[in-house]
Amino acid sequence: MSQELFTAYSKFSEAILEVNAYVADIFANHEELKAYSPQQLQTLRIIKKNPAISQSEIADIQGVFKTAISNRIKKLEQDGLIAILTNQDLRKKAISITQKGTELLVISETVIFENLNELLAERFTGDEIIKFTSQLDEIVKCLKMKKDGDKQ
């Protein structure tokens, strides 16, 4: 790997950290969102995208131990953002988002996206942002293919 490419990956890694910190700051300063961590809202987003998902599946997607997910799930359930349903043999619990959870996600996405748009619109055109996110989609595809290949 060339030094230039190494530097590019390093900058990419730093950018991910900065974006995460920026989003966390937005949440911390928003009245309705400050009660939740970015990880809890990410968990809620995963549950919305994957109805009837299990805690183990969420842990796998987030790359964390099931104990970390248990704490997140407990908070989300206590606040009425998710519902946990037990199947007939009582071995699997399926987690689904509630209407209240969906409404909170709409608020969080609106707040984040409006802040990002305000921040980025001064330096990038809409087309540039769309092209960049298309490139991010390709990175995500590569990561998913790698992960799926590792499972086989």
TrEMBL record:
This is HTH marR-type domain-containing protein. Pfam families: MarR. Transmembrane segments: none annotated. One of its GO terms (molecular function) is DNA-binding transcription factor activity. Residues 2-141 form the HTH marR-type domain. The keyword Protein transport does not apply. The keyword Transcription applies. Keywords: DNA-binding, Transcription, Transcription regulation. Gene3D superfamilies: Winged helix-like DNA-binding domain superfamily/Winged helix DNA-binding domain.
